[in-house]
Amino acid sequence: MRLLWRILLDQRRLAIALLFLAGAAQAQEAACRAVLAGTRALVDATVHHLLDRDLLRLVKLGLSGRLTVEATVVRRRHLWFGRVVSKGTRELPLSWSAERGVLELDGRPVSDPDHIPLERIVLSLGESEDPSTYEAQVSTRLVVVTENSLGRVTGLFAGDSDSPLTKTVLSAIANDLTRSASVTCALEPRK
Predict the structure, then answer these.
(1) For residues 120 and 118, what is the distance between their CA atoms, to the nearest angstrom?
(2) Taking the model in full, what pTM does it have?
(3) Structure confidence at residue 178 (pLDDT)
(4) How confident is the model at residue 157 (pLDDT cuts 50, 70, 90)?
(5) CA-closest candidate to residue 32, choices 190, 187, 143, 142
(6) b/e 96-114 (16+ beta carbons within 10 angstroms → b)
(7) Percent of the chain with pLDDT over 90
(8) What are the backbone dihedrals phi and psi of residue 106, each rounded to the nearest 5 degrees, phi first?
(9) Which residues, 6+ apart, have CB-to-CB distance to 26 below 8 Å?
(10) What's the sign of the alpha-carbon dihedral 56, 179, 48, 100?
């Protein structure tokens, strides 16, 4: 406990600890494929390396996560900004099923935590034009450890978890444990 307070109260040690945590994070990636089907865009996405070893261990110990998936279809314009045609957001629970011994995303088993395929996202365009004028953007954000859950844990060790310094440190650590990835892909005509 004394070591924790020495780190939290010394700015140099705290900076080194936060840099160590940030440097330990593995790069997250996403891949997508989007198909234009009439007036709908069918977007398939896969997230790679979203869970590192430590986050997977926390999920296996019983912490549940929340994966936010946001998909957007943008119509590109020459010499101007693109126009958002359609947008959709899903929040998917991520948890470990002890009885099945498998990681589950929205109740579906995930066979490989390093490569998580997402359920197909269907976005309505309202119009059907040349698919080369559209692109799909998919962004994901995984939150397993929140500022509140860290606060509950530190509240067990110290009664003063409402101080501004503690809140700032907890927020910084929770943000560092958040994983995100994004990708953009062109819409293809359906074959």
Answers:
(1) 6
(2) 0.71
(3) 77
(4) very low
(5) 187
(6) beeeeeebbbeeeebeebe
(7) 31
(8) 55, 40
(9) 49, 52
(10) positive
